[in-house]
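Database export, one record per block. Field names are fixed; values are copied verbatim from the stored entry.
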Amino acid sequence: MQALAAVLRQAKEPLRLETVEVLPPGPSEVTVRLMAAGVCHSDLHVMKGDLAMKTPIILGHEGAGIVEEIGSGVTSVKPGDHVIPIWRMSCGRCEYCLGGRPALCDVGTAMRFTGLMPDGQTRFRDASGEPILHYAGVSTFSQRSTMPEAAVVKIPESVSFEHAALVGCGVITGYGAVMHATRVAPGSSIAVVGCGGIGLNIVQTARLAGATKIIAVDRVPAKLEYARTMGATHFVDACEHDPVTAVKDLTEGLGVDNAFEAIGLAEPIEQAYDMTRKGGTCVVVGIAPPEARARINVNALVYAEKTLKGSIYGSTRPRLDLLTLIELHEAGKIDLDSLLTRTYPLSGINEAYAALERGEVARSLVLPQAE
């Protein structure tokens, strides 16, 4: 099968549209026709070289589509089923999977760092017959992608592909940071440092959880306005105010019960930790460059009994939580429409990332079949 795909040939270069060959699914694999794919900072980190990956590679990890073909032994889906790819697939058998922490599974981790399927091969070929690597096992910036059966979750056909794609990364990561990485209590206070796609979903999930003081912190006024739409109650422009001082001023000098860092840089991580009150929890969600190091006051960690922790994929169980989020959206408790700012054809993917870097969007999608 052939497909149009956005290929990264080398970091710090634009994505190239190429016609690639998509190999058919082998045992326990499926081929998915991608209908929508999310434009996320995680891919941008690879494009800019902040996160090293071998190339050539087809990026994209947030999406939704239709199963076109299945390999032998596949039982959970059939051709025609609508699915969301899981960009951190899990084996279901290791101690992490059995312990309810599938995002830490070594199988998914290996796929993320090698760009290969579990058998050590790739299912993409370029026009010269040379292999192209996968990103996070799913490579949603392609009209078609072959991936493990364990990397897809069947969803109701009533859910639009645009909504489903949003749920697949930004929404579930923000939701899980609030509901799983730490439990935001009714009546509590939170601060969100970085109001991009993940930060906005932390905001709206904190509202859902009953937090009464939700402080949005960002350098881009438009993102603070997006946060207002999603339920933030207070706002700090980090260009005009010291975020730590401003948050403490809003909390009678105490700091917040829970702070979330959703950027992935050392300074905002330090700020999020410093604005956390005694006994509170600071959760780092942003993906930082490998060399990033944050300076933490260790005495405050001890004497104030703060908790500092990281969260990948929202510390969720995607096969369960993705369906829960769809139910919450259908019940009117999770807002997906306000998140979607723009859509682009696959040919507009570089402009989509330029708009993301300029801070113009809450979340945008590319529609691979819209060419």
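Remark 1: The chain has a mean pLDDT of 96.
Remark 2: The CA atoms of residues 345 and 367 lie 5 Å apart.
End of record.
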